[in-house]
């Protein structure tokens, strides 16, 4: 594809409807050169089989420090020293570091423990909906989709209720950056938010060292203190990642999922009439809306050929999950929303060792949030023209700024 025909895949306008562009790439150029907003070059992989392979194949690494040559590293965007601890999170490292770090937190997201959160989630969703019904309208993003996962991950980590809105303001700036390795220009926007975010996490860690509690932050602090192979940078980065990943993607699932249902009233009514369809419905909404649009960066460990295209050692690869989830080679009628779709082998949570740690929690939050909305209302309608909905910019996630609705 010609460079001048390639859109800015991080801009808000593209996020509103990226699917026609991806369909074109799958047909014409399934492995395409793109220029990211920070000037870096990457290969965008768009077909289902290729995306699945990139996500789980060991030839594609996450830790660029162990893959790139000295000359390639010298070409990477500058990152301030104060931010370097944040690059040592589970998303940016490979085994054995990834295995070690994931083992420290995966038990907290075990399906049994997640299911125990059901009563809390049902109560929370019910309270938020009751407040909205009294007003007759709400912004479904900030009034409903955001408070549910934000409250749950904050409670897991032991973050006081009064501080939770701060976290979302900070994380919103971080995930809206044009790259996970931002340019100097974008850093001027993100530096204050990240600095405040890190300062708060340091205070939270210090507080749990002095006064341990029954929360995930205490467990991580104790793992660090007892020498379970977690250094200071990794501790900071882990909490930072859990806060952001623990709510941002699920906000998009709930809000974008409801928008999809509102735009497909036959599917909305089918789910309203049969709430037991909520599990396959959530899987279909994950596929159809792709809250995570692309996987985070990977780097070729060696020369690799993908769909006939030679990718050289050290080159960056972006796996377009949103494209894979609409691939006609994998899904019949991929642009049709079908809440009873079976099979539905979507890639919304990734593949391989980096498969989303919080998938069980995200699924449960989505199921309860949407079923509560449908069961507790007679009518939900968009309060704006769909073309007026504002989407968030950013490289990896896909979600809306706001979703005004009326309800009764």
Provide structural commentary.
The chain has 408 residues and is an alpha+beta fold. The protein has one domain (3-407): Orthogonal Bundle (Cytochrome p450), CATH 1.10.630.10. Helix content is 49%, strand content 9%. The protein contains 18 helices and 10 strands. The strands form 3 sheets. Strands 1-2-8-5-3 form a 5-stranded mixed β-sheet. A 3-stranded antiparallel β-sheet has the order 4-10-9. It is globular and about 60 Å long. The termini are far apart. Residues 178-185 have low confidence and may be disordered.
Show the helix and strand layout.
Elements: H1 12-16, H2 19-28, E1 31-35, E2 41-45, H3 48-56, E3 60-61, H4 70-74, H5 97-105, H6 111-115, H7 118-135, E4 137-139, H8 141-145, H9 147-157, H10 164-175, H11 184-210, H12 216-225, H13 232-245, H14 248-263, H15 265-273, H16 278-289, E5 298-300, E6 304-306, E7 309-311, E8 316-319, H17 321-324, H18 359-375, E9 380-382, E10 404-407
Parallel strand pairs: 2-8
Antiparallel strand pairs: 1-2, 3-5, 4-10, 5-8, 6-7, 9-10
Helix pairs in contact: 7-18, 10-11, 11-12, 14-16, 14-18, 16-18
Q: What key phrases describe this protein's structure?
A:
single chain, alpha+beta, Cytochrome p450, 10 strands
Count of extended strands: 10
Average pLDDT across residues?
88
Q: What's the number of domains?
A: 1
Secondary-structure-based class equals alpha+beta
Find the CATH topology: Cytochrome p450
Helix content: 40-55%
Let me know the CATH homologous superfamily.
Answer: Cytochrome P450
CATH architecture: Orthogonal Bundle
**Strand order in the sheet with the most strands:** 1-2-8-5-3
What are the segments in which pLDDT stays under 50 over at least 5 consecutive residues? 178-185
- The shape is globular
Strand residue content: 5-15%
| End-to-end Cα distance | 48 Å
Order of helices and strands: HHEEHEHHHHEHHHHHHHHHEEEEHHEE
Radius of gyration: 21 Å
Task: Give the biggest sheet.
Answer: 5 strands, mixed
User: How many individual helices?
Assistant: 18
Regarding CATH, which class?
Answer: Mainly Alpha
């Amino acid at each position: 594809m010609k460079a001048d025909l390639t859109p800015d895949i991080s801009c808000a306008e593209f996020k509103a409807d990226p699917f026609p562009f991806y369909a074109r790439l799958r047909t014409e150029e399934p492995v395409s050169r793109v220029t990211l907003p920070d000037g870096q070059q990457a290969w965008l992989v768009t077909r289902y089989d290729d995306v699945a392979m990139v996500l789980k194949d060991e030839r594609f690494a996450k830790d660029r420090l162990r893959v790139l040559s000295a000359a390639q590293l010298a070409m990477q965007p500058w990152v301030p020293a104060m931010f370097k601890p944040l690059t040592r999170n589970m998303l940016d490292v490979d085994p054995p570091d990834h295995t070690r770090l994931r083992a420290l937190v995966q038990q907290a997201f075990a399906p049994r423990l997640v299911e125990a959160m059901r009563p809390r989630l049902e109560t929370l969703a019910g309270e938020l909906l009751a407040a909205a019904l009294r007003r007759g309208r709400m912004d479904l993003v900030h009034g409903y989709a955001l408070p549910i996962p934000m409250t749950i991950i904050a409670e897991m980590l032991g973050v006081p209720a009064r501080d939770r809105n701060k976290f979302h303001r900070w994380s919103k700036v971080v995930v809206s950056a044009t790259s996970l390795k931002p340019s100097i220009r974008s850093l001027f926007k993100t530096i204050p938010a990240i600095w405040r975010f890190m300062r708060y996490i340091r205070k939270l860690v210090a507080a749990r060292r002095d006064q341990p509690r029954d929360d995930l932050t205490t467990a991580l602090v104790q793992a660090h203190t007892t020498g379970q192979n977690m250094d200071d940078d990794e501790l900071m980065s882990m909490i930072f990642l859990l806060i952001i990943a623990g709510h941002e993607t699920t906000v998009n699932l709930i809000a974008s999922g409801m928008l999809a249902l509102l735009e497909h009233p036959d599917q909305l009514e089918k789910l309203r009439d049969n709430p037991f369809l909520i599990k396959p419905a959530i899987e279909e909404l994950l596929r159809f809306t792709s809250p995570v649009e692309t996987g985070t960066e990977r780097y070729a460990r060696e020369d690799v050929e993908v769909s006939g295209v030679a990718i050289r050692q050290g080159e960056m690869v972006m796996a377009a999950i949103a494209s894979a989830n609409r691939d006609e080679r994998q899904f019949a009628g991929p642009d049709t929303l079908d809440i009873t779709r079976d099979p539905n082998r979507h890639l919304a949570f990734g593949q391989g060792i980096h498969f989303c740690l919080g998938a069980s929690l995200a699924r449960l939050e989505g199921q309860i949030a949407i079923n509560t909305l449908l069961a507790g209302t007679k009518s939900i309608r968009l309060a704006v023209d769909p073309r007026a909905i504002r989407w968030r910019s950013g490289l990896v996630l896909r979600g809306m700024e706001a979703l005004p609705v009326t309800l009764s």
